[in-house]
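User: Predict the complex.
Assistant: Input components as received:
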Amino acid sequence: MAPIKVKSDKNLVPYIYILPSIVLMIIIYVYPLIRNIINSLYRFSGGKAIFVGLGNYKYLIFKDTITHAAFFNNFKILLVIPVFLVLSIFLAVLLSEKIRFTKIYQAILFIPYVISIVVVGIVFTRMLRLDGIINFLLDKIGLDFLIRDWLGHPKYALFSIMGVIVWRELPFGILLFQAGISNINEELYEAARIDGSNWWQNLIHITVPQLKHVISFYLVYNFMILFSWIFTYVYMMTRGGPVNSTMILELRIFNFAFKESVMGMASALSILLFVGIFIFIYLQFRIRRTTMEENI
Amino acid sequence: MQVILKGEFKMKKILITFLTIIFAVSILFLSVSCKGEAGIEETAAAETTEAAETTAVETEASVEETAEEDIFSEPAELVFWWYGEQEIPGVTAYVDALCAEYNKLHPNITVKQVHQPGDAVVSNFLAAAAANSGPDIATMWGGIYNLEQFWAGVAAPVSDYVSEEEMSHWIGKKYSTYDGKVWASDMFANGMPYLYNAEYFEQVGLDTEKPPQTWEELMEASGKLKAAGIQPMTVGWVGGYQFVTMAGDLIFQYVTVQDIKEMVVGTKKFTDSPGLLEVFKKIDEYNRAGYFLDAGMSLDQFGAFEEFRKGAAGIASSTPLPLFLSWVDDVGPDKYKYIPVFPKFADAKYPLPGPPAFVFSEFITSWSPNKELAADFLVFMHSQKSLELAVEILKGNLMPVDDRYDPGTIADPLKREIAEMMMESFKGDSTHFDMYLPYAITGENMSVVAQQLILGEVTPEEAVELVEQNAQVWREQNPEYVENFKKWIEE
């Protein structure tokens, strides 16, 4: 079959081949996005759609205290990312040491990741209650001064959820870094050993620098993925309470849309969240790219 | 380096071209879909009126056609979304039997029933409504939950398809009447009484047959339980729903349903009436005495009831009646009893006739292609056969709100007594607080403020102020909603 000839010097054939996927992408991603932008300019009420311009955005940015609380909580939740990073590198290094029963440890550490978030939420809600097993154990080991209503007090609820997130999501990082570590040239460690380097020095001066691409990917990945599953944790464990202390933007959007039936407001907030995440990820990519170019 | 930059430039050009194509196609999509949704997009009252007129014309036509055509002659499927298994154990069996009986009566018609989890009833329905697909018959709660759907134009008026005579037996229809039409069939009533553990009451020297009748007696009983090392009362503050049910028991001793409705739209303020302030004062008093279950702040309504079942407390705050009754079926009526009417306050203005009731109601969706069939199924739900099934399968645990239902047919004396009281309570307008308040005022506002009160962050006076402030912001943001609500009040 003769190649399709077009007037332009560019070959458009490959683009025709990928056209179906582009159309699919438009339907799945672009159409809802634009639809959402349009919806965010309306107030839907009593079967009517009233154009309010940027009114929804104005309300969310300047007036809605619950959204403000949710915004700051989303930021606080980002604190889990450095925790993920440090812990997963540390545990991955430990698991990569040639010790006995490594496979068993690996399997045990990976268990949380295969448990559904819903199940994790239900189980931890019971465990973290005032009369839950965690407080019971604290009492038994003489740490009764630490007994708290972990999910029932605004001071601790968000941090408790973050703890659960770390417990459930950490294995992925461990696995990723283990794979990264296995690719590091053994000769680097041997040379370091000859120079008298200890375990910590190996970790800081060889392992971590050698993992920088994995670290970079892991940071971006976590940032992108974090906000997609945080909703399930909060919904299952606290539903945003007590006193909105665990309210997050995703739950606020859900409440606007499906509890208060104010779809315009839900759309506006989802657009704000989208823009926020987009800017953040864009900046991360820029920094990553600049660093890579500098290294070259 | 130069080559790389050129390549980048080329890539950017291609990317921009693609994005432009994507944008153009999206706009095309939008314009097509917007045409389809013109009824919503192109705004306002004129459209609604037009839609209503169209519906009326269509209805007249359909009624005439129905008279001529047999709607049961062709095979058809009705999709029925219902909910309740969590609150009404065993209701699945009732719905199964109901659908099977209907199929026996009309072999060409199949009813496909889909159970919805309690906390997803509204969200799932709104998602279905956005797509104009899903159930022919949807289930929700009476009052504001239903009204929001009617206002959004996603329900068809039941009264266009069902005779006046038939509807005259539906004693719950007042909660689904709007704009001169009945929009739903209010089928079952549910009460939320307080329960108590008779063994604990006996242990601390309280009369097991005579639960507290006044607020002072409740405080005294709670004090005795506490002194004996028993937590007096379970309440689950998570999600806020139990606070709302509790507030309903308290507030209707000071204000009327009409007062509440006016507070929603702002013609009266929450701060003007003693009602809400008294609710917060009483809750604060009880809380400061340490009578609520300590773990309540991390429990929801069902979690709190579970704690009561495990023996964690002497009294359970507002609990769905069917849940209590089906539990009594298992453990017998002696150990756990119920408080028929919430203890009276010394300064109460209005007596409560019984535990406030709320209704489950079914409505026909505006997109259903089988509206007459759906209406016929709703009528069947009120038929003698259905009422018999309710007694037989649900064992009197759930009360149909139909004046043809005779609570006297329930064999179990406790259930009969409750059903009779509920019927009176319902006729006497002792309904649930939640039926009149939009979620923005209950879930996002009052419940959160109540949590602040429990944590000692605000005083009762500050709590009421906060509720009113938040309500005012909501009113300003939702003028159309407020207008619809006002119309409801006027009616």
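Chain B has a mean pLDDT of 85.
Let me know if you want any component modeled separately.
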